[in-house]
Amino acid sequence: MRCSCGKRAIFNSKGYRISLCEGCYPKFYVRLVKRSVKKHKIVKKSEKILACVSGGKDSVSMVYALKELGFNLSLLFIDLGIKNHSAKARKVLEEISEVFDLDLNLIKLKDFGFTVDEFRIRKVCSACGASKRYLMNKFANDNAFDVVSTGHTCDDLLLFFFKNVLSGNWEYVTKLKPRVDGFDGFVTKAKPIFERVEEENLTLVRALNLPFLIEKCPHKPKDVWKDLFEVIEKEKPGFKQNFIRGVIKLANNLSVDHWVFKQCKSCGGISNTGICSFCRLVERYSQKGEESCKPHA
Ligand code: AMP
Ligand code: ZN
Predict the structure, then answer these.
(1) Burial class, 34, CB count within 10 angstroms (exposed 0-12 / middle 13-18 / buried 19+)
(2) Distance separating alpha carbons of residues 45 and 48, to the nearest angstrom
(3) Which residues surround ligand 2, an ion (CB under 5 A)?
(4) Nearest-CA residue for atom 18 of ligand 1
(5) CA 266–ligand 2 middle distance (angstroms)
(6) pTM of the shown model
(7) Element (H, E) at 149
(8) How far apart are the CA of 226 and the centre of ligand 1, in A?
């Protein structure tokens, strides 16, 4: 297959009915992100954005697109203390910060008294997720960022929808919105590449020869849902994106007024029970106890 410019295509899409070469693909990708950002008012030029990056292809793609579109960005990497993983990710982030000439902020979970490897629970990923969300929000709040931006993809949203929303937590659907506006200490959250699928991100970082961490987190379990989505996608190209667009429409028509937030008794942050999930982890795993949660107050 050939790109319309005549060069060999590296991207062939049935959904878009397009073939693109290494040079033309990144421009196409950025145009797609621009369209999502504009349509859903995901981020604004006037906002100071904290781009949270894991070092994987998705968050690196997000940084590329936002930078190309002229947004005001700084990077945040959270070192979760995962053996044979976090140090490699940090190296990638140092390279990314140089390539894009962006500030790199670092937080070590260890400074709060524990690491992800120390969690002795079945649901390591949900505790890790709670830690990341807490630290991203805290850093943005403490340093006057307007928006916390993550590289959540169409695939991530689909998985969340099937695992968390369809299991009965219907109100969680509003968490999937590409932009969730902030309130008292809760910084606005944005997902600028929510319509992009992982394959598109992989093609982007490869086309541009950007540094990225290929290996997945060793704690991540294999997900059968993902295989299922791929089977449907193969039969019906565009299924994943069309499905998520429908879910977002649904989320936009739901009110979040019924979310009742309380203040965490330990750190003063937001919780839905009275003590936030991060403080519960601190209580359980930190040698330092309550003290390590104090900076958030
Ligand atoms: P995950 O929770 O691993 O599915 O990642 C979702 C998004 O969270 C990524 O696209 C990043 O934007 C962000 N993220 C994940 N891990 C980190 C990390 N260690 N430091 C900063 N941001 C992260
Ligand atoms: Zn707390």
Answers:
(1) middle
(2) 8
(3) 264, 266-267, 269, 276, 279
(4) 54
(5) 5
(6) 0.92
(7) strand 147-149
(8) 18
Average pLDDT over residues 167-186: 88
Where does the pLDDT of residue 220 fall: very low under 50, low under 70, confident under 90, or very high at 90 and above? confident
Residue-wise pLDDT tens digits, 222-255: 888 999 999 999 999 899 999 999 999 999 888 7
Here the tokens at position 219 are: 């704690």
- Residue nearest (by alpha carbon) to ligand 1 atom 23: 54
**β-bridge partners, 51:** 75, 149
- Please determine, for residue 90, whether its predicted confidence score (pLDDT) is greater than 90: yes
Residue 139 CA to ligand 2 centre (angstroms): 14
Give CA–CA dist 143/139, Å, rounded. 6
pLDDT at 292 > cutoff 80: no
Q: Is the pLDDT of residue 291 over 90?
A: no
Report which protein residue has its CA nearest ligand 1's atom 14.
Answer: 54
Q: Which ligand is nearest to the CA of 152?
A: 1
pLDDT tier at 272 (50, 70, 90 boundaries)? confident
- Nearest bound ligand to CA 277? 2
pLDDT, the chain, mean: 91
Q: Does residue 132 have its Cβ closer than 6 Å to ligand 1?
A: yes
**Mutate which of 49, 79, 150 for ligand 1 pocket (most atoms within 8 A of beta carbon):** 150
**Cβ-contact 104, 93 below 8 angstroms:** yes
pLDDT score, position 287: 63
178 lines ligand 1 (CB under 6 A): no
53 ligand 1 Cβ < 6 A: yes
Sign for the CA dihedral angle at 157, 162, 164, 168 comes to positive
Find out whether the beta carbon of 156 lies less than 6 Å from any atom of ligand 1.
yes
Give mean pLDDT, residues 136-165.
Answer: 95
160, 166 contact by CB (below 8 A): no
